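Record type: ASSEMBLY
Status: queued
Input:
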Amino acid sequence: MVRSSKRYVGIAAGAALAVGLSACAGGSTDESEGSASGTGGASTVTFRSWSPIEQTTAQMVKAFTDENAGTSIDATVFNYPEYLVDLQTRASSNTMPDIVGLQPGALTQQYRDKLMPLQQCASDTWGSDWQSKFYPIGIEQARMGNPDGDENFYALPLLVQTVNLWGNSEIFEDKGVTAPTTWEELESVVKKLSGESYAPFMLPAKDSWLRNVVFLQIANNIEPGLVYQAEDGTDSWTNPRIVEAFEYWSKLFTDGIAQKGAIGLDAYPSGANQFEAGNAAMIPLGAWWIQQSDPSREDLPPLSEGMAGYEPFLFPTIPGGASEAQYVGGIDVALGISKDSANPDLACKVLTDWIAGAGAQKLVNTFNDLPAVTGMNPETFTSDKQQEMWAMFTEDWMPKVQWSRYLESPKVDTALGDALAGVATGDLTPQQAAEKVQSAQDAAS
Amino acid sequence: MTRRRYRPDASGRLHLVLVPLAALWLVPIVMTLGLSLLPRSNPKTTALGLLPESPSLSNYVEIWQGNPILGHLLNSVIISVPSIALTILFGSMSAFALARLRVPLKAVIFGALTLALILPMSSIIVSTFKILQSLGLYNNLLGLVLVYTALGLPFAVIIIRTAFLAIPNETYEAALIDGANRWTIYWKLYLPLARPALSVVVIWQLMMTWNDFLLPLVTLSDNALKPLTLVPLAYRGTFLSQPGALFAILVLISVPIVAVFLAVQRYLVNGLAGAVK
Amino acid sequence: MRYRRQEAGTALLFLAPALVLFAAFVVYPIVYNVQASTLRWDGVNVGQFVGLGNYKELLEDPVFVTTLRNSAWWILLTIAPQAIIGFLLAVALNRRLRGRAVYRAIFFIPAILSPVVVGIVWQRILDPFNGVVASVGRLTGIDVLTQPWLSDPSTAIFAAIFVNVWMWTGFSMLFYLAGLQLIDTSVIEAARIDGATGLQLMARILWPLLRNTHLSLLLLGVIGSLKTFELVYVLTEGGPNHASEMLPTYTFKQAFQLQSVGYASTISVVLLVVAVVSSLSMVRAFGSGFLTGDET
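Status: finished
Output:
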């Protein structure tokens, strides 16, 4: 008891001090004494992110530290919602990690003042034409949302992706169908595949991000690029062509294309697990699904072994819309470096190694997603199908990606996700949904 | 019921109700265990989706090999045990004051304490972090102990005070007349009598400290200090479809709490009556 | 008088450690939230003072109304079932009964599972396409079981409440078990000698004697309902289209996904006010002894 009473005298003093600090909310944290980043000394950098997955990150860390004796990387990878909490807390209290994972647009912009411009690091490492190493969509999105006149790169893309549909090849073969290329074909394929134990078109629509990427694929197939004009104010969300996209989204539910209860199923782990177990013939995901065939993992399920049971295809074209299916995609994860990093040179070295060096090779070897730079390929493929698929993604699809899978403003992004859920449940008509997004857009700008 | 109580058929009838109810209650738990045995090589399930088609311990092996589970477990214990002890001590002291002593503004104090119950961790995480930082407790397990104790106190006070109130006031007065001071009455008389309530507090506090991950996530930076709850985060990615490993680690995390529950529930069988008289 | 002052001094010593911790880790965060609620602020960059602007915006926010309605449903539909089932289980499992410890553990385990597990598992159970409940429904022809409970905006909140009852009933049982230990067994013996049947004993003797336990559970239930977060977040993410949104899930979204820390703090402050108001109205309803513990 005596000991603990002494302890709380100490705590009392500390608490009084803490309350005395007051006025913490809303202030700038720049003046604070001593940064906590790089606590491990001159040869350590810290890294926190939600992607790449932990097992892959561990291999990348090892690749770097093996080549650079005496350095160490303290990496922590965890789920995205918690990552946002962690990043905000650390950025507002000077404990930001040296290297952070970022999404392009809103997230990067929120932390812009805490991040180091990276073009110097990039041109020192790769030469002045470094931008040509990357897929164009990655370079474009890395600066998404920068204020006018600010040409800095606060983040560099690590992984990129397309968003698209995946089919179960076994089911397709069994039923003698091919991947639908038009909306009519989608309807007829779904009809042919229904009544079985699997869902013809599994839409795991509980997740806002998934609803939005499916919608963006539909909208761009109707009128390529129009949503982005609506977003920058040169057009409107209530443009009839965008309302039409909401109508097609609605048809997924009302015309029996999506499975029952689609709006309650999450993509990960439930939807993905069902697709992998053969309980769905088609599912909207993206290029990253190729990671199911990661050769560094053992015991892959039969469908995933060398991608044997899967085939990617683009969202079908819409009647009266663009004649060709459009490519939608963008950055999966980008990396930034804290302005307060005690070790910016080492951080730059790690970042560039992971994007295009030995670390990147490890990353690519696991098929985690598509690399942000062109010309990097896995050292081993486990099947011809997997190799062809990889080549198609990296050489054919990715260079053609013109349309972003993200909207710039998190408020409009959320409003769109909400509106799509409202349409899916029948609470909103397509017209009302479009109006809701437009009013969120008006409020945000 | 007295007379029926010892007749076997009464318990039999009770079992008739309890067995189906317990079975129904178990369905999600069976599914949890089932999914933790779902191997990556065969994601198919059977028995209405409750059990894996080919159950395997591979997930447990994987998380055991991939993480220093025992080290994390030790950290969890280092956080939970002191926090439970402090909560019980400080909470019962406050409860004693609020139940048996004349405290000015009693209603205000008690009402204010309940405020701490309502604060969601995500709303206070940033400000709590700043306090810990200014106390020099960033990256320190003691900081977590103090925060959990503070947040657990209101619950402890409410529960223990209820138990203290059930102890007849005459007992207290008699002890005072016998010349016992208040500290002795609290420590020697009240605390032992409140054992059932204390066991509830122990379990509650254990659940809170054992399961929370947001606070250790932001306030700890050393891998060597991380508690068990930070392990599942790595198995819960946006693009990660391996529920088996996630469930296996979460099952493992739950095991110690079940063990503690089974251990303390024996304090829930001794009636108070005999002890007081 | 002197005796009184001395006792107040002693009482303060008993309360001191709790109050110190409380000041540091409860009062300060509240002050911080109140201050942040007057800002338009993303949590990282310099905020801009907007006075009561956030509060005005909140009052006009339709999602806020939904969260209040959902909280009311949650309070109404979790507390009573959890109390009644928990009480009955406690009475049953307070007797000498074979397998008592096993039963207790089974009913209690849901409360200790991580909400992440509970959310994912129940999503799979309730999935109308491939879930357990729907499969049983199709096998037995009971059509109602195949409803998309979690994905229909009119039922999502109730499905979440149902899961909550499953999760927390065992905890109420534990409470009542602890409460039953505090009942003087001579009261029960006396009633039995008077010929009370089992049901009468439960309804007329045990239930009223557990008044303090009921009130504690009521208080905890109201507050627990208001602060429900993880279960809803994992189960429905507050959807579809905010249909099952609760105040804390909305706070979380605003603070970390929409970068509106000022607005999120406003919701937190309102949450605190709602909690205080409900505590006070319970005081009104049950007398001030409800909070202070003085017999009324």
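Annotation: Chain B has 13 helices and two strands.
Annotation: The CA atoms of residues 28 and 50 of chain B lie 8 Å apart.
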